[in-house]
């Protein structure tokens, strides 16, 4: 949120209405937790009572062993709320590198004039 507050302060914005973020699936950031934190840290700032929209960027991996590129292998665990993406190739089982899904970016900041 420091980056968003930096933009707001640099441009003299007094009231932010909505912030839209792109959060990659591989960051393992839970939208509900992020929204809770957002509300906590934005009190008494120009972002107070603004909406936080989170766009999830799906994970994609690239395998140097078999040249697979696509969705990663997911780990299913009864304790996890949802399947957890891994960096293991779903085709050959070797290690992969993240091609997409590790982003954390500000997409837009909507403010009142």
Radius of gyration: 18 Å
User: What is the CA–CA distance across the termini?
Assistant: 21 Å
Task: State the share of residues found in helices, binned by percent.
Answer: 10-25%
Strand content: 25-35%
Strand order of the largest sheet: 2-1-8
Mean pLDDT: 91
Secondary structure tally: strands: 8
Largest β sheet strand count, sense and barrel closure = 3 strands, mixed
Number of helices: 2
Descriptors for this entry?
113 residues, alpha+beta, 3-stranded mixed sheet, 2 helices, 8 strands, elongated
Would you write up a description of this structure?
This protein is α+β, with helices and mostly antiparallel strands. Helices cover 19% and strands 33% of the residues. Helix 2 links the parallel strand 1 (16-24) and strand 2 (51-57). The longest helix has 12 residues, at 31-42.
